[in-house]
Each structure stands twice: as C-alpha cells, then as structure tokens.
C-alpha cells in the first residue's frame, strides 16, 4: 500500500489527478455516468419515499414498501464510474513508464471514493437513521468494489494470492446473498454502534487500501504477456505433420450463432437449455435458505418473496449491442452477406435465443412460484405469458437508441442494454396487477418488434467500431 | 539525484523470463553505454517485447536482473524513472483527453520541463484541441512518441515505434531520433522490423532468437566482419577464428571474418545483404 506521507511532488501529482474529476476529460471518458445519473435520481426518490413513509410507519414497514435496492445500486454504479475513470489512465500502454501517474490516480480515486461513500452515508442518515448505521450500510454494499479494486503486489506468493482471492470471493458472495434477502437493508440499518463502527472502520480501510493497490496493476499488464503479441513460432525442422485445424472440438451451429452476440463463452444448445432450466430455481432456493436462516421466515414464503430477483435472471445475458468490436471481423468473413444482412443476423440470433431460453426460464420461475404461493394454474399461465412477452420485448428494446439516433453515445447504448435488468422487476405481474403488467408487456413487445424490424436498417448505415476505444 | 556518468544506463544480467512452461527469455546479458543506439532484432516471438517489458520494469524476471542507471529496475526511484522514456507498439488509454491537455498532464509528472523541442513538435503535427480517441492510429503513435521524448530522457526505449507511421513520418522520425541521440547523448534501444532504418541509425545490433541473445555486435564491426563463405566445409571453418551464424546450400555465413585470415583454396567470399544476414541469424532451427 502506498505511503500516506506525501512529498511536495506527490501532492502536486495528486492535485492534478483530482483535478481531472472536475474537467470534461472525466465526463468524456465515462460511459457509466449516464447510468449513475439515472440511479442517483432513483435512489434520491427512494430515500425521499422512505423518509416520507417514516412519518407514520416503522423503518421495517417503510423499507418493505420501497425498493431500497436503488440506493444499493447507486453505490455500486458510483464505484464503477470511478474504476472506469482510473483505468482509462492506468490502463494506457505508456502509463507504467510515467513516474508517479498510477499512484496519483489511485490516491485521487481513493479520496473521491471516500468522499462519495461519506456523502451517500450522510444522505442516507437523513431518513433518519443513525449515521454509523448509514455508513455501515453504504460500506457493506461497496464490498464488491473493494474486492474489484484490489491488485496484489508483484512479490506476493501464489499461495497468498489464492488465499486473498478466495477471501474476496467469499466476501462478495456473502454480500450478494445478503443483498437479496428482503430484510437485509433493515438489518444493516439497525445494528448497534458497537458492531457498525468497528466494522465500518475495517470496511473503509479495506476499500481505500484496495484502491491504493492500483499501481500493482501496472506489473500485471495483459498486454505484456506473450499471448498478446509474442507467440512462439513453430520450429522449422519439426514439421512432423501439416499445420491444420486444432484438436479442439468444433463449434456447433448454435454456438456459432451465439458468436454474433459477443458472449464470453458460447455454450452448446444442450448446456444452454440445462442452465436455463436450473439457474433460477437453484439461485432462488439458495437465497430463500439464507433468508430462512436470517429472518426465520418459512422457505416457501422466502422463495415467493425473491421472485423479483428471478425476473432479473430472465434478461441477464450478453452485451449484444454494447460490445460490437467483433462485428467487422465477422462481416468480412462474408458468411452473412451485406451489412444489413449481418445486422439482421445478429437480431435474428438474439430473438431466436430469447425464444428458446426465455420460456424455459419463465417456467422454471413460475411453476415453483405457483406451487409455493399457491396460485391457480390459469393465473400462473397468464403470469408466465406476460413474463415471456415482457422479457422478449424489453430485450429487443435495447436497440431503441439506434432507431431514434444516428450514432447513439456508448453511455446511452449501455443504459438501454442494462435497462431490461432493472425494468423487468418494476413491470412484472408480481409487482403490478396482471392487467397493468400486460399493458406494459404489450407496449414493450410492440416497441421491441419495431426495433427488430427497423433498427437493423439504421445500424447497417452507421459507423461500426473497428479500432480500439 | 544526479546521474553518475560512470554508471551504465543499462545492465542486463542473466535475464530469464518464463510464461508458464514457455521460456520467453533465456539467460540474456548485455549492457548499453551512454550515447549508444542499440537495435533489438528478432523474429516475431523471439522475445523482443518481453525483453523491453523487463527492461522498463513492467515484467518481473524469473531469474537475473535489470539495472537502469545502477539501480535494479524493480526498485527504480522516481527521479531515475523520470530519466527513461518508452514508446509502445500501439498507444492505448487516455482516450478522453485532448492532445494538448494530455501533453500537459503527462509532462507535469516529470516536474518542470523545458519547452518541447520545436522539431519534435513540428514532426508530430498534432492539433492540441483534438480528442485522443478521435486520432488515427498513426497520429496516436506520433503522440506516444511525443509523450515519451518530451522530457528528453537519458534512456529511450522504443518497441516497434514506426509500424503505423507513413513513409514520410517514418523517415523523418528516424532522422529526428538520430539527431536527438547525438544532441542529448541519450542511450536508445529500438526494436523494429524495418532493417534499413536500424542499420542506418544504430551503432550496435542485438539479435534475439528463441529468447536467447545470439549475437551482440557493433554495426560497423558487423558490416566489416560478416561474410558469406561459399564452397568451404564446416570442419575447416571450425579451425578458423569465425563464428558460424548462418548457412545456405553453398556455404556459411560467418561473423569475425578478416582479410588476414587465410582461407582454403576455392572458398568464395561475398558481402551479405543486411536483410539476408538477419534472416539467417534469426532463423529458427533445431540441432
């Protein structure tokens, strides 16, 4: 970790790095800022609602009537904004050679992160809740970023790295599991000071320490490993056989179609079906068990309460319109024909996959839900139908910016790509009446189909990313 | 900290770097003296970029050490780091800055600097108001070079710096680099596949093959003592003070040739083209 005593030169570095946060450079470099702005508004509205409800309700009641998840998300998005900004500088190919740059960026990020955390805790304490509880709440929900920021020092042994890695994963899993338990926010906001103050100090030091470890990334640069640009050449005289296709299993047509959608690892049809079938029930059962343990609610009640999370899993997937770096490479293969045909192939691949996996995921969510709630089969059928239409429609709506704008900014595409994850909870039949949910689902489907039909024409006549950045 | 003139800018000792089971560098040792301009030559995958990564302290050696200005590069203090400059193969990052803002921002990390060399500024020919993200690949490379040379480093490392430059910009840059080295007395280490540039600019040649330094020779000596000896048998040549560094159907490429050595009758001598010599020296063979 960097020393806290700064020389005059380091002070001046820090001032310059901090100054960047108040310039157009910060705004330009950060496609997450639009998301942050949206979530700041959502979080402010949520906190104001809780504040209003607290006039005639207890904190537990007020929290159960609002979506505190918005406030938690704003903490996470704010950390993503800071990470993106710092990485824009530290990730540069010349950054390791510039004396003091990485340290200055890390120090500036740690100060901004600290101020953000304290500011948001101050805002949360206006509910009113004790400041120490608000701070604990904010810091606890910043745990994933404390883990993400951390970069191990180069001299650290492999064993220690693995231990820290597992510790980080355990922390994140714990935070994530707790986050999905419906009473978690109440639990965090009502802990005694004797617990929250020491815990907050540890969490705060952990977060700042992790950010200050950022310069270690310079010695872990992927661009310097031989896989990036220095592959060993085959030895001339060891040609025991012709250079041919590798021994790896060839991709199935289903996987090849998925390649259009920029997945991290395209899976086979069978695996995709299997994952879709078990993903939601397994996750929701785990969350329900945690909730049973923490709140002494029955398993079925806990399962039913977490269907909102299940809805999110209906639309979690690839960054099909956000990550388009691979498009030019695939286009020039000629496999898909013209630019328009190519974009239409992307949309078709997305829709066909949605039509295969969404019904399976919806059934895996609605069948146990109907059984545990319990629900009449006809009602369950309408809920399922509504969810399928909603998920498919909203996913296709990700292309709306291309319909409305010639070259939408990355931040807008990013926001629309993430929007289904957030909106599907708010528009689901589990939260709204079936009639209202149905109106929204049909609207989403109409807009989605409009995007499906017309957006490819617009995208095929716009610039595609073909160089870095 | 003042740089002692008697301290070597670069001292590489028994440098080994592995990535998993692949050995990228295998026991490489060499030094660079003040004012030397050294070319790093080798095929793709020979270990050039890995060597540069180790030299700049971006990669940690598995064995051996790299000293810059007498200090281990892994513990290089800030004032010595500020005496180095690095040009990567391609410039990434800093996309949201304007060119002018980035030059000022990066320059400030080096402390108070003199005005930028007008010749360098003229050559770079960049609009200070343009956003880095909007620059072409070649313009970005010019910016990377400007950023690396702006503070007039004593040791400048360039990793294939001209690959994305147009022929005019490339030729002018090589002249600029030569002038810079002469004017400041800086040491320069450059890796490139444009052999004619390296032959013209560099005073010393380092040939890497499969992670090993197979030849380390001043350019003038290389020119004077590298010859094709055709119609000679290897057992005769092995008795002579030559190093066989390549071969073809009719003979051998040797280093260390001089007019004083008496060769067997029938042996024909010819001067190799620099590119042919490179191809022979860096060719990958098994025993």
From TrEMBL, chain A:
Per the record, which residues fall in region Disordered?
223-246
Assigned keywords, A-Z: Membrane, Transmembrane, Transmembrane helix
Q: Where are the transmembrane segments?
A: 31-54, 66-86, 106-127, 134-151, 163-181, 193-214, 273-294, 354-372, 384-405, 412-431, 437-455
Has the keyword Membrane been applied to this entry?
A: yes
Query: What name does this protein carry?
Result: ABC transporter permease protein
TrEMBL record, chain B:
Query: Where is the ABC transporter domain positioned along the sequence?
Result: 10-235
Give the Gene Ontology MF terms in alphabetical order. Answer: ATP binding
Pfam families from the entry? Answer: ABC_tran
Provide this UniProt record's keywords sorted from A to Z: ATP-binding, Nodulation, Nucleotide-binding, Transport
What SMART domains does UniProt report for this protein, alphabetically?
AAA
Query: Which CDD domains does the entry mention?
Result: ABC_DR_subfamily_A (cd03230)
Q: Record's InterPro entries?
A: AAA+_ATPase, ABC_transporter-like_ATP-bd, ABC_transporter-like_CS, ABC_transporter_ATP-binding, P-loop_NTPase
Which SUPFAM superfamilies did the record assign? P-loop containing nucleoside triphosphate hydrolases
Concerning PANTHER family, the annotation shows: ABC TRANSPORTER ATP-BINDING PROTEIN, ABC TRANSPORTER ATP-BINDING PROTEIN NATA
Q: Which family does it belong to?
A: Belongs to the ABC transporter superfamily.
Q: What is this protein called?
A: ABC transporter ATP-binding protein
Taxonomic lineage of this organism?
Bacteria, Pseudomonadati, Pseudomonadota, Alphaproteobacteria, Acetobacterales
């Amino acid at each position: 970790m960097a020393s806290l005593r700064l020389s005059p030169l380091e002070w001046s570095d820090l001032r310059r790095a901090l100054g960047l946060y108040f310039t157009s450079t910060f705004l330009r470099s950060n496609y997450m800022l639009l998301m942050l702005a949206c979530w700041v508004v959502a979080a402010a509205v949520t906190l104001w609602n809780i504040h209003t409800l607290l006039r005639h309700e207890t904190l537990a009641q007020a929290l159960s009537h609002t979506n505190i998840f918005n406030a938690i998300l704003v903490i996470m998005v704010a950390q993503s904004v800071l990470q993106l900004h710092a990485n824009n500088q530290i990730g540069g190919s010349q950054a390791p050679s510039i004396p003091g740059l990485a340290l200055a960026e890390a120090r500036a990020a740690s100060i901004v992160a600290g101020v953000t955390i304290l500011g948001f805790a101050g805002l949360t304490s206006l509910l009113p809740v004790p400041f120490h509880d608000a701070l604990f709440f904010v810091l606890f929900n910043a745990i994933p970023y404390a883990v993400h920021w951390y970069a191990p020092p180069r001299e650290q042994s492999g064993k220690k790295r693995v231990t820290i890695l597992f510790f980080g994963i355990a922390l994140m899993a714990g935070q994530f599991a707790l986050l999905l338990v419906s009473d978690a926010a109440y639990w965090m906001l009502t802990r005694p000071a004797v617990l929250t103050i020491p815990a907050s100090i540890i969490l705060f030091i952990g977060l700042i320490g992790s950010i200050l470890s950022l310069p270690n990334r310079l010695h872990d640069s992927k661009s310097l490993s031989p896989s990036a640009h220095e592959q060993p050449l085959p030895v001339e005289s060891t040609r025991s056989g012709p250079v041919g296709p590798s021994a790896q299993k060839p991709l199935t047509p289903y996987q090849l179609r998925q390649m259009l959608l920029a997945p991290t690892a395209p899976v086979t049809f069978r695996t995709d079906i299997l994952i879709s079938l078990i993903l939601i029930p397994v996750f929701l059962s785990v969350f329900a068990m945690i909730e049973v343990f923490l709140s002494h609610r029955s398993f079925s009640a806990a399962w039913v309460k977490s269907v909102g999370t299940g809805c999110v899993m209906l639309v979690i997937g690839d960054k099909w319109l956000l990550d388009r770096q691979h498009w030019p490479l695939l286009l020039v293969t000629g496999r898909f024909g013209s630019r328009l045909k190519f974009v239409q192939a992307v949309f078709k691949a997305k829709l066909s996959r949605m039509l295969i996996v969404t019904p399976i995921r919806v059934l895996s969510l609605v069948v146990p839900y109907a059984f545990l709630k319990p629900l009449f089969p006809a009602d369950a059928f309408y809920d399922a139908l509504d969810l399928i239409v909603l998920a498919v429609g909203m996913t296709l709506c990700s292309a709306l910016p291309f319909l409305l704008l010639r070259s939408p900014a990355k931040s807008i595409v990013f926001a629309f790509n993430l929007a289904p994850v957030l909106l599907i909870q708010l528009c689901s039949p589990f939260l709204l009446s079936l009639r209202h949910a149905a109106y929204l689902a049909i609207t989403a489907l109409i807009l989605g189909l409009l995007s499906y039909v017309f957006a490819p024409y617009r995208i095929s006549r716009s610039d595609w990313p073909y160089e870095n950045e | 900290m003042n740089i002692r003139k008697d301290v070597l800018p670069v001292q590489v000792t028994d440098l080994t770097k592995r990535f998993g089971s692949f050995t990228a560098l295998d026991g490489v040792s060499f030094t660079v003296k003040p004012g030397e301009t050294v070319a790093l030559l080798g095929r793709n995958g020979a270990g050039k970029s890995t060597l540069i990564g180790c030299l700049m302290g971006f990669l940690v050696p598995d064995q051996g050490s790299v000293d810059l200005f007498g200090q281990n590069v892994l513990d290089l203090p800030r004032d010595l780091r500020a005496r180095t400059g690095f040009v990567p193969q391609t410039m990434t990052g800093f996309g949201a800055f304007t060119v002018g803002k980035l030059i000022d921002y990066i320059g400030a990390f080096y402390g108070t600097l003199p005005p930028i060399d007008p010749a360098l500024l003229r050559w770079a020919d960049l609009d200070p108001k343009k956003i880095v993200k909007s620059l072409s690949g070649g313009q970005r490379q010019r910016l990377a070079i400007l950023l690396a040379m702006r503070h007039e480093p004593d040791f400048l490392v360039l990793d294939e710096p001209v690959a994305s430059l147009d022929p005019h910009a490339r030729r002018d840059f090589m002249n600029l680099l030569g002038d810079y080295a002469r004017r400041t007395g800086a040491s320069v280490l450059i890796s490139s596949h444009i052999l004619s540039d390296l032959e013209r600019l560099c005073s010393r040649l380092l040939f890497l093959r499969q992670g090993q330094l197979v030849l380390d020779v001043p350019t003038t000596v290389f020119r004077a003592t590298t010859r094709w000896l055709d119609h000679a048998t290897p057992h005769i040549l092995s008795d002579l003070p030559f190093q066989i560094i390549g071969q073809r159907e009719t003979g051998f490429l040797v280093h260390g040739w001089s007019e004083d050595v008496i060769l067997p009758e029938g042996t024909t001598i010819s001067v190799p083209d620099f590119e042919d010599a490179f191809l022979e020296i860096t060719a990958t063979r098994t025993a």
